[in-house]
Amino acid sequence: VKRVMLRVGLVAAILVVAAGSGLTGVALTRWDRTFEGPYPAIEATDDAAVVEYGRYLVYGPMHCAYCHTPKSQHEALDAGETPPLVGGYTVTIPPGTFHMPNLTPDPETGIGRRTDGELARILRHGVRADGRAAIPFMEYQGMSDSDLRAVLSYLRSQPPVRNPIPDHELTFLGKAVLATMIRPKGPESTPPATSPPVAPTVERGRYLAHVAGQCVACHTERSLTDGRFIGAPLAGGMHFPNETDPSIEFVSSNLTPDPETGIAGLWTEDRFVARFKAGPALPGSNMPWGAFARMEEADVRAIYRYLRTVAPVHNDVGPTRREATR
Ligand code: HEC
Ligand code: HEC
User: Fold this and answer.
1) Is the dihedral of CA 112, 114, 30, 87 positive or negative?
2) Cα 13 to middle of ligand 2, angstroms
3) Measuring from atom 26 of ligand 2, which residue has the nearest CA?
4) Contacts of 261 (CB under 8 A, 6+ apart)
5) What is the rounded distance in angstroms from the CA atom of residue 215 to the CA atom of residue 222?
6) Which one, 27, 51, 239, 291, has the greatest CB density within 10 A?
7) Half-sphere exposure at residue 16, Cβ-oriented, CA atoms within 13 angstroms
């Protein structure tokens, strides 16, 4: 089965529309401008329990692995394997060719070159090690200090794999987008020191839905020019272009508890759990089902219980796999 662009599809669509919207007159000398961003005081540890929880986040709810492995490994990921995070997944769109970096600790081609502060800064504040703004593929700015530490600890624990990854190759349009639109994005409020423990609680579910699992990022309608939310959070309706078959597109479901149109209204908790355990179903879907299939059952129940508490929104998104409209 051909695999997907995940949210890469969303960011790619936004960059393409932004690039097409008349940005060409700008001062291109600004595309490589740098930004100040604080270095969070987060340090990796080799504590085995912390490393193991970090691995759970990276391959499970936070689905980092689907971007930081080449596409050729996505079937292995779907099958529950843990291929190393060697990077090399590449997306080519009008603004440029974007390469996902190698996250193994190789000292020349991976994160062995980076300090913990640099790694924490790109995740929390969207500033790359060289000071440029990160292309906004990652929206984990609100993750807790303890989760950030667990993720860094897992990344540092991996065996190093040498795999040189080029920097992004930007076209004229891409430079225009970077010069004008892309600024580092930090957390909306001070992130918590710790996140709620794995347990079927509403608090844990809220954290997974909004931060770690990124459900809100995909299950909310967003502007294609700057990514801001234009629909009700979790009410679905975001369109995702399909990388392998441009004649179809996926549309994210309404997850609110509306009894007629929302998943948390239409499905029982057990059906929701069973769907997550089942893993990928629609070939090419943008949703990282293979990662979410690894979630602890308590985490899946937590998400459902949280979804039951949000305001129901009546929004019939129609078939979630359909002929492309744009
Ligand atoms: C949707 C795709 C996507 C997902 C999911 C994703 N990343 Fe990334 N990541 C990227 C891209 C693209 C870059 C390069 C950003 C840039 O250079 O503008 C990057 C860069 C990084 C870097 C900087 C590497 C370096 O050499 O400085 C780190 C660290 C990182 N990601 C960690 C993570 C972790 C941890 C997760 C999960 C919590 C994650 N990423 C999830 C796409 C993704
Ligand atoms: C990268 C984008 C993305 C992320 C992240 C994402 N989803 Fe989805 N989701 C989709 C798309 C697109 C569909 C429709 C296609 C499909 O069913 O695979 C979907 C479908 C669903 C469905 C409906 C399945 C069905 O059979 O009708 C559920 C339930 C769901 N998502 C829940 C979640 C939850 C909970 C999270 C967070 C843990 C989440 N999604 C994160 C994009 C995403």
Assistant:
1) positive
2) 18
3) 275
4) 254, 313, 314, 315, 316, 317
5) 13
6) 291
7) 14
Q: Whose CA is nearest to atom 37 of ligand 2?
A: 215
pLDDT digits (tens, 9 = 90+) for 275-290: 999 999 998 888 999 9
Query: Which residue type sits at 200?
Result: P
Cβ atoms within 10 Å, residue 284: 20
Other CB atoms within 10 Å distance of the CB of residue 20:
15
pLDDT at 175: 86
Closest-approaching ligand to the CA atom of 141 = 1
Positive or negative CA dihedral for 290, 291, 297, 300? negative
184 close to 133: Cβ distance less than 8 angstroms? yes
**Low-confidence stretches of the chain (pLDDT beneath 50):** 1-5, 24
Q: Are 58 and 65 in contact (CB under 8 A)?
A: yes
CA–centroid distance, residue 257 to ligand 1 (Å)? 32
The response to whether residue 104 sits with its C-beta less than 6 Å from ligand 2 reads no
User: What is the predicted pLDDT for the residue at 326?
Assistant: 58
254 lines ligand 2 (CB under 6 A): no
Cα(252) to centroid of ligand 2, in Å?
6
Residue 132 near ligand 1, beta carbon < 6 Å: no
Token pair in block for residue 326: 């744009």
How far, in Å, is the centroid of ligand 2 from the Cα of 280?
A: 10
